[in-house]
Amino acid sequence: MQVIETLAEGLKREIKVVIPAADMKSRLDERLADAKDKVRINGFRPGKVPMAHLKKMYGKSIMADLVNELVRDKPSEIISGRGEKSATQPSISMTEDQDEAEKILAAESDLEFTLAYEVIPAIELKSNEGIKVIREVVEVTEEEINEQILKIAESARTYETKKGKAAEGDRVTMNYLGKVDGEAFDGGAAEDAELVIGSGRFIPGFEDQLVGVKAGDEKAITVTFPTEYPAANLAGKEAVFDITVKDVASAAAVEINDDLATKLGLESAEKLKEVVRGQIESQYSNVTRQKVKRQILDQLDEVYQFDTPAGLVDAEFENIWRQINTDLAQSGKTFADEDTTEEEAREEYRKLAERRVRLGLVLSEIGEKAGVEVTEEEMQRALFAQLQQFPGQQKEILDFFRNTPGASASLRAPIFEEKVIDKLLEEISVTDKTVTKEELLAEDAEEGEKAEKKPAKKKAAAKAEAAEGEEAAPKKKAPAKKKAAEGDAE
Predict the structure, then answer these.
(1) Are 120 and 361 in contact (CB under 8 A)?
(2) Taking Cα atoms as reference points, which of 423, 303, 406 lies closest to residue 371?
(3) pLDDT at position 45, please?
(4) What is d(CA 149, CA 138) in angstroms, rounded to the nearest whole number?
(5) Structure confidence at residue 457 (pLDDT)
(6) What's the catalysed reaction (predicted)?
(7) Which of 220-229, 331-340, 400-409, 441-450 tops mean pLDDT?
(8) How many CB atoms lie within 10 A of CB 422?
């Protein structure tokens, strides 16, 4: 077999592979000899079929299998033998001339095929001593724990019917019928609907007009739907809701005690506080972790600069670009609405894709050199987490991971990356800094405010975080039958 390099330009490689016809004939003869004792042909005893006859009947199909096997298996062997790693699946090209193909199958011509691929660049790891990060830590106070418990307790709060007028915090039970231009609209009616005044569940202005009503009252409430309301036929329209108040109830006081803990499924108030403290600490820890990780990767981004395989960047860019366009379509916006152009956006996201690929290669090299491995148990936990996210679709998800080549890599990659970050944290300079929760969350809050004005920019930030191991949170879809009167709080 001859292996001839025909292109070595940057990361691009092309290799011409030639397997002489004599070698192909030898391989074919071996296969035929092996098949001789196994095939059953009428008129011949087992093992007595003449080789010429066997070749005439099965030679072409056996040779076709040989060619397929060689083209399938040899590329990885060749690339590995060259001390290279292919960034993507190599592209393989062969003759398309029918006559030439027939000669190859008859072992009369050499088998030739070409591999085209990009190599993963050699990465010379550098010392991590210069990497320094600030790890922000929030001390959880008793006051914050109690405040969170009271919020959780809203689900267990009881209400008692009261005489007199409804006030902020009271629960109003009512029937209502909404009309636009005098016509009732779909989703604008309900009976025995319960609404806590001040909860923000209904469109702006609705709840304010319930203050002062009492059981038995009938009232017309006039509101205007927000201009960005999801239902286009209602957006920006004035609506009148005819309501009949059935009941007004005041909220019973909530005390943090063993009774409340029992209602929430825990044995004691002490245990409730312990659980809530753990939840708050976990939330802050996640934010702290991502901030530290971002600092690490920003510094790695400065240290490691090299050409990245275009194929990997193209694939990453397409993933990002597909999501961006989906988000814009769902929001009914264009690039112009985001103060940019498609060309500028493409350039921005292309740079983002290149950064993600480069950092991914760096982390992979660090992890490989450090002997980082992902265990089967960790993979199983990740798969179980996927199954939990999509109840009722467990079979489809399992089939996907079983039958889709490379699908398991989507489970392995984030686990591997986090373990590499853990390894780096053992080697770099980490300084703990106690901050308030407002300081810890300030950066994310600022990004959120900007994102409200520039959704496209928000997605860029989300994808940048994804490059650093954060999964962009999916948008929660509104229930299909959500009443039109209700707002976006749910």
Answers:
(1) yes
(2) 423
(3) 63
(4) 18
(5) 46
(6) [protein]-peptidylproline (omega=180) = [protein]-peptidylproline (omega=0)
(7) 220-229
(8) 10
Q: Which residues contact 154 (CB under 8 A, 6 or more apart)?
A: none
Cα–Cα nearest to 107, from 5, 198, 212, 32: 32
- pLDDT for the residue 255: 83
* Nearest of 134, 136, 132 to residue 441 by alpha carbon: 136
The values of phi and psi at residue 19, to 5°, are -110, 115
Question: With contact defined as beta carbons under 8 Å apart, do 461 and 451 qualify?
Answer: yes
Instruction: Give the three-state DSSP class for 107.
Output: coil
Query: Cβ(447)–Cβ(472) under 8 Å?
Result: no
What are 374-429's pLDDT values in tens digits? 999 999 999 999 888 888 888 899 988 888 877 888 899 999 999 999 999 999 99
- C-alpha–C-alpha distance, residues 62 and 70, integer Å: 12
Three-state secondary structure call for residue 328: helix
157: three-class secondary structure by DSSP? coil
Nearest to 75 by CA among 61, 62, 93: 93
Structure-block tokens of residue 247: 């009941």
Q: Is it the case that residue 17 has pLDDT exceeding 60?
A: yes
DSSP string spanning 244-292?
EEEEEEEEPP---SHHHHHHTT-S-HHHHHHHHHHHHHHHHHHHHHHHH
Encoded tokens for 213: 């009503």
pLDDT tens per residue, range 325-348: 999 988 888 899 888 999 999 999
Domains parsed from the chain with CATH numbers: 2-118 (3.30.70.1050), 158-253 (3.10.50.40), 267-467 (1.10.3120.10)
- Both tokens of residue 486? 């209700």
- Give the chain's length: 490
Q: What is the enclosing helix (H) or strand (E) of 18?
A: strand 12-19
